[in-house]
Amino acid sequence: MRVILRQLSIWVAAAICLPLLGAVDENWLPATGDAEDTPTVWEFQAITPHVTVPCGRMSVTLSAQGAIQVDAGEDSYLLESCFSYPGTPRKPDGSIDWNGEIGWNGLARGFNHPRYPDISPQRGPEVTWQPEVSRVGDDTVRVEAAGEHYRLQRTIRVHEGRVGIDDTLTNLRAHPTSVVPRYGLTASEDFLERYNAGLEVPANPTLFCRGPRRSVGIVMQDNFSRSRLRPAMGEAMNHTGIQVNRLALDVGSSRTLSWSFYVMEPGQGYFDFINRVRDDWDANFTIDGPFSFGYLLPKDDDIKFYLLYSPREFYLNDVENDPTALREYLDWRGIEILAITPWLDHDPGAMDHVVTWDEYRQIMRRFVPAMRKVAPDLKIIACIETDWVAIRPDTMPNGDQIPLPDQTQKYGPSVIKTMTPEVSAIIEAGMPGWSDSIVRTAKGEFSVYHYYRGGAPINQLPLHVYPQVGNKRYDYMMEQIKLAVEELGMDGVYCDEFPLGQIGNVRSYGSWDGMSAENCFKTGELHGEYTDCGLAGVQARVDFINYVHDRGKVFVANRHCTSRDEQALPAFRFTETGSAVAEAAQTWEVGTRPPALNYLFFSHLNSPLGLGACGFPEGEDKVRWMVKVTIIYLAHGMIYYNYTMPEPDMTEANRDAYLLEQKLFPITPVELGQGFIVGKERILSAVSLDRLCDVDHEPSVMVFDINGKVVDARRRCRVRQENGQWRVRLDLDDWAEVAVVE
Question: What pTM did the predictor assign?
Answer without folding.
Answer: 0.95
